[in-house]
Design a protein that fits this description.
- It is built from 15 helices and 16 strands.
- With 468 residues, the protein is an alpha/beta fold.
- Strands 12-13-11-10-9-8-7-4-14 form a nine-stranded mixed sheet, with helices on both faces. Strands 1-2-3 form a three-stranded antiparallel sheet.
- Helix 8 links the parallel strand 8 (235-241) and strand 9.
- The longest helix has 25 residues, at 442-466.
- Bound molecules: iron/sulfur cluster (SF4).
- The site of iron/sulfur cluster has 11 residues, from loops.
Length: 468
């Protein structure tokens, strides 16, 4: 109930009753609140392609739909574009159904009728699924991908909930962190060779990895190339993120270090908003960084924007998109503002939520622009506490989708995470997941690296041995 109506409070004498029964393999569900009753007979779940686990899940889904329907009638709960789907990765369910032989037309009606999605969202999921499926490999454990996390940033953005330690206050930890990271890179590199693993994509993220500069950055990239790249490595992304870190020298180092894709993230092209969310760069820094990156010849550039930033309306988003259009990135990632508990913005502001219709209009506008630049949506995820119950979407021009983003989001490939705050995800052949997180704090990471490294390598060995 809380996930459908986060402001719901309990204990006011009202009773919500839900019940279900299986009658000749048909699922019969009833939900009742204050005399308002919703009943349903689900015959679709009798389909032999469903398993016992699916049937158990369907009971919960139908009860959830029933609660949503009675809340809509009794409390006027607004319909959500995503119906009863509340998970972060709605694509995973779509892929699982496609794996089991449900054709897209049938799947669309399931998305509409079982999950109560609106037609636009159902079409979006199917469009992205068709684009992603050629990227999947039969073995989730070879090739794999690699993430390296640098948990430092120039300053901390007010909406941030990542591992991001401001250089001003934590810069003294950088040296020790990099030394520990070098050890981890070399050790994981030997393991890759020992197990003969191919690495498909490498992602240097954070934080802002380009807070590491000069010789430190050169050394880091060269170690990554030497130890983590294999013959099959087809993508190397650096999440440059903050444009003010992208001097000519840094971009030249990135290019010489084999970077194929960088992210230059304006979030908005409005100076006042940038100041209010704690980013130190201006709009001109974005333009300059972009022009420099093109000039040094980095092949692909992604730009991130955030919809629903405080004080921004549709006209601000339009202006941001117009500006980005004049630059011409290869990827555009459109985030709807999500305020997690760890973010300063959530602590400072009681109500940042803007109306759902306005959020949807922003999402539609961003799509319109992205399509007009020849891009297609290629990955999607949702977050808790997200603006208007919407989603984040990555767009790309043809042949420019990020392999790493697809593999990381769909969880069909093991991803080894090195560095601060990274989460290693090991995928079994039945696509179940085991996660292992590195410490976020650079000081703990550096202090514990030696004692943890051997245990971690053994754990990886046993996972890859059992997956053979
Ligand atoms: S640049 Fe990204 S990681 Fe760094 S503080 Fe801002 S949101 Fe957080």
């Amino acid at each position: 109930m809380k996930s459908l109506a986060p402001n719901a409070s309990f204990g006011q004498g009202r009773v919500l009753r839900g019940s279900y029964a299986w009658e000749d393999h048909v699922l019969c569900v009833s939900v009742c609140l204050d005399g308002e009753e919703w009943t349903f007979r689900d015959t679709e779940i009798c389909d032999p392609r469903y398993t016992e686990v699916d049937r158990e899940r369907r009971v919960k889904e139908r009860v959830r739909l029933g609660i949503r329907r009675v809340f809509e009638r009794v409390y006027g709960l607004a319909p959500s574009p995503w119906g009863i789907l509340s998970g972060v990765r709605p694509m995973k369910m779509v892929h699982s159904m496609l794996d089991r032989g449900f054709p897209p037309e049938e799947l669309k009606s399931i998305l509409l009728e079982v999950y109560a999605l609106n037609s636009k969202k159902a079409d979006l999921l199917l469009e992205i699924a068709a684009l992603q499926r050629p990227y999947f490999h039969s073995d989730p454990n070879n090739p794999i991908s690699i993430y390296v996390g640098i948990p430092f940033c120039p300053t901390r953005c007010s909406y941030c909930s990542f591992a991001a330690y401001p250089l001003e206050t934590h810069g003294h930890l950088l040296k020790g962190f990099l030394q520990a990271l070098h050890l981890e890179i070399a050790a994981v590199g030997s393991l890759l060779r020992e197990l003969q693993l191919e690495v498909e994509a490498v992602y240097l993220g954070g934080g802002t990895p380009t807070t590491v500069q000069g010789e430190d950055l050169e050394r880091l990239l060269s170690l990554m190339r030497e130890h983590l790249f294999t013959a099959g490595t087809r993508e190397f992304t650096v999440e440059a993120g903050r444009p003010e870190t992208l001097s000519k020298e840094t971009l030249n180092i990135l290019k010489a270090g084999g970077t194929q894709r960088i992210c230059i993230n304006p979030q908005t092209m409005h100076a006042a908003t940038l100041r209010s969310i704690g980013r130190r760069h201006g709009v001109d820094d974005v333009r300059t960084a972009f022009a420099r990156a093109r000039k040094v010849g980095i092949p692909l550039i992604n730009m991130d924007i955030i919809l629903g930033l405080p004080g921004e309306e549709l006209s601000h988003v339009r202006r941001t998109l117009e500006e980005i259009g004049t630059l011409g990135p290869d990827n555009l990632t459109v985030h709807s503002l999500a305020l997690k508990r760890a973010s300063r913005l959530r602590k400072d502001l009681d109500q940042v939520q803007i109306a759902q219709e306005q959020g949807e209009a922003m999402v539609d506008l961003a799509r319109e622009y992205a399509l007009s630049w020849g891009m297609s949506p290629y990955y999607l995820y949702r977050q808790r506490h997200i603006l208007g119950d919407l989603e984040n979407i990555g767009y790309a021009v043809p042949q420019a989708s990020s392999v790493y983003n697809i593999q990381m989001m769909e969880e069909r490939q093991s991803i080894l995470a090195l560095g601060g705050g990274g989460v290693t995800k090991l995928v079994s052949s039945d696509l179940t997941l085991t996660r292992h997180a590195n410490p976020k704090c650079p000081a703990s990471y550096a202090a514990r690296i030696r004692e943890h490294l051997e245990d971690r390598l053994n754990l990886l060995r046993s996972h890859f041995a059992s997956s053979n």
